[in-house]
Each structure stands twice: as C-alpha cells, then as structure tokens.
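Exercise 7. Given the encoded structure of a 416-residue chain, write a plausible sequence.
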C-alpha cells in the first residue's frame, strides 16, 4: 500500500541562519520561510552575488536582510551595506523591516530619501550608520556633500531594480556602484527582468546566481483578473458601477498621469469622505498622511499613479482598478501585485478598463502574464444610465460599506 508524499516546506533553522537571526525571526512571528526566502537566503549567505526574481509582496525584504545582517560588524562605525529602492515609501518600508529583523543586533540603520529633512539623515550618518537605505537621488546628494562614504561597503542591494530603471535612476545607480569597492557582494531583487536590468547585472555583478521564483505566471493565483471594454468618456460611469457592484474592502484606482488622477479624485471627493489621492508631486507630509489613513482603513478608495504604486504594501487591499491601462506590461504586474494579500482565503480582484483602440495593449499584457483575462460584463451598460445601475445598490448598509446615498450622488456627478 502506497501513500501520497507531500513536499515539506523548509524551516528557517534549515537555511543556515545563525542563532541571532533565528531569534529575530521568532520575535517578529515568521513561522515558515516564503519560497523566495527559502531559495535566496542560503545562496546569499555564501557571499556570492545573487539575482532574485519574485513578485512584489513575497517576502523579498527579509530574504536579503537576514543574510546581510549576519555580515555586519557591529563594532565598526562606518557604512557596510547600502540598499537602493525606487521610492521614499518603499525605502522607509524596507528600513523598518531591517530594524525589525535586527532587533537582536546593535545595528544602526539610516534612511536617506528626498522629501525628508536632511539634518536628521546627516546626523544619523555621522553617528556611524552601518546600513543605509535610500533612493538613488538622495544617496548621490549625500555622497556629493561628503556625508556618505561608500568606500568600505561590503554589500550592495538593489531592490525593485526594474522600477528604479523605469523611473530613470540608471545613471545614479551606476555612479553609486562605482563608488563602492569592486570586491563586494551585490544582491539584485526584481519582480521582472527586462533587458535593461539584465544589462545592469552583467556589468556590475560577478557571475550572479539566479533565484527565479516568478514562474510563468508572474501574477499570483490569489488575484482574479478581469477586463472591460469601454468608451473613454464612459470610464467614470463604469468605475462607479464597479464599486457599487463589488463593494470593495479597500481599493486602489491606478491612473496613468498625475493630472488624470487629480481630475478623477476631484470627481469623487465631492460626494465621498473616504477617498484620497497620492502621486509623486505631493509633499511628503501629505503622502505620509494619506498612507497612514489608508493603512488604518479610514480611506477605502485611493487614486494613485505608478510612481508611488510600488511603495504600497497593505494586506487589506481587496480590489485594484486600472482606470487607465498601463503603458508597460510590467507596470500591470506591479499594480495587480498590490492585492491578493488578504489574510483570509478570499482572493483579490483586479479590473482593467480597455478602450477599443487598446486591444493590442491588452493582448501584450496577457502574453506577459501568460494568462487570459476574464471579461467583466456589465449587462445593458452601453445603453444604461444611473437607473439601470441602481439595482446593484439594493444591499444591506453594512458597517464600512459604500453607502447608497454616496453613490447616488456620485452617479449624478458621473452623468453631469
């Protein structure tokens, strides 16, 4: 008699981590390593260069942080590790994770980003920071001002490398890498590996080992994905209809441009109080306030551009709406990766609005993710007006649900 055998997931104590790392992991409540952690950590511990490819939200930060912390000389008061990330939000998120995992070690971590007062950052560097996390632009600024010395760095980490290159940080990244010793360990983490990222790796990494957890399906199975064909001038009506129909727990609506996001947000804020806007040109304090409200659940509908989309890592996001189809297929991957992280077994949902002339872009996305999107059908939508949509709001007025009155008002705005 035979029994089916089931592969047993590895434990953290089987990855080669030292006792302090295992104690920190236990303190923060990590029970079993994610696939990227299980594959990446043992290779990174060898000191070799490593490229890790996995979607956002799979535990990449801990994957590169734990091996790096074990190399830090806690008695040496100079920068030993530099972590580069594309946005302020992501840099601060990474720094918090590093501090959390370094709980058992007297390691000093400093975040170096724009949009924050420079004084505290300079003071942190002067006090002997051993790990610096920052955006390429501010890191270059600190180097030029002679506040940041990378001449003794032993580990360089490029987080979300594809996004950093998308934003245009390649020249800054190369300047930073040239300031670091040739004999170092370089760890590159990315959700996708387009040619520019591969070229960067070939030039600045030494025979890197590849850890690929992307699979052919680059978008998690915990996200159901849909598209709807719609005329451009009816997308606002469709968005209102979708929110009525789905009643999301929390939703991010991605818009391609800052101006477009502001215009859409202004339509909704007239009638709803639990909506906010975030894009790269907002003052940092404003962005922080918006994200704090979004994390607490006070904001349920967030309009955002791609520039800040990578820094949003919140488990309660149930829906993503691509109000504008992304220009690049990889941006679709990153947008959709914001959802599907709910603590329950419930799947996240992603909806993409496609105009008639954007069929080729939809096909390119489907080829990129190796998956066909389901069509989200709206019966009678072409000819319907608010009356037809009203049938979707005859539901219980649950706590924290979208209110009928709010959406009736929004429909008036949509059809004005």
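Solution.
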């Amino acid at each position: 008699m035979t029994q089916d055998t089931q592969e047993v997931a590895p434990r953290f104590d089987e990855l080669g981590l030292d006792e302090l790392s295992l104690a920190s992991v236990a303190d923060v409540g990590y029970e079993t390593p994610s696939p990227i952690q299980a594959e990446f950590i043992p290779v990174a511990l060898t000191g070799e260069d490593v490229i890790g490819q996995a979607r956002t939200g799979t535990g990449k930060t801990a994957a590169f942080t734990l091996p790096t912390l074990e190399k830090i000389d806690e008695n040496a008061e100079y920068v030993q590790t530099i972590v580069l990330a594309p946005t302020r939000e992501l840099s601060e998120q990474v720094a918090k994770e590093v501090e959390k995992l370094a709980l058992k070690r007297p390691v000093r971590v400093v975040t170096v980003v724009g949009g924050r007062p420079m004084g505290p950052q300079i003071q942190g560097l002067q006090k002997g920071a051993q790990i610096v996390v920052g955006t390429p632009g501010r890191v270059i600024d600190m180097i030029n001002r002679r506040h940041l010395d990378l001449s003794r760095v032993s580990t360089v980490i490029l987080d979300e490398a594809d996004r950093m290159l998308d934003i245009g940080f390649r020249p800054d990244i190369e300047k930073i890498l040239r300031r670091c010793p040739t004999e170092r360990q370089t760890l590159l983490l990315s959700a996708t590996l387009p040619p520019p990222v591969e070229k960067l790796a070939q030039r600045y990494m030494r025979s890197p080992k590849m850890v690929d957890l992307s699979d052919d399906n680059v978008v998690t199975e915990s996200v159901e994905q849909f598209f709807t064909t719609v005329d451009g001038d009816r997308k606002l009506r469709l968005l209102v209809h979708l929110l009525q129909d789905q009643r999301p727990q929390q939703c991010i609506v991605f818009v391609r441009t800052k101006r477009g996001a502001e215009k859409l947000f202004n339509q909704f804020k007239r009638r709803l109080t639990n909506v906010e806007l975030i894009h790269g040109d907002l003052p940092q304090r404003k962005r922080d306030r918006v994200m704090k409200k979004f994390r607490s659940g006070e904001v349920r509908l967030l309009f955002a551009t791609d520039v800040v989309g990578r820094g949003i890592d919140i488990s309660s996001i149930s829906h993503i709406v691509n109000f504008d189809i992304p220009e690049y297929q990889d941006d679709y991957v990153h947008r959709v990766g914001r959802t599907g992280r709910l603590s329950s077994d419930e799947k996240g949902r992603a909806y993409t609005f496609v105009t008639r002339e954007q069929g080729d872009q939809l096909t390119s996305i489907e080829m990129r993710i190796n998956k066909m999107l389901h069509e989200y059908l709206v019966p009678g939508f072409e000819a319907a007006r608010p009356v037809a949509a009203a049938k979707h709001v005859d539901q219980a007025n649950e706590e924290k649900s979208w209110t009928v009155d709010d959406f009736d008002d929004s429909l008036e705005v949509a059809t004005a």
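Remark. Confidence is low (pLDDT under 50) at residues 1-6, 382-406, 409-416. Students should compare their own answers with the one above.
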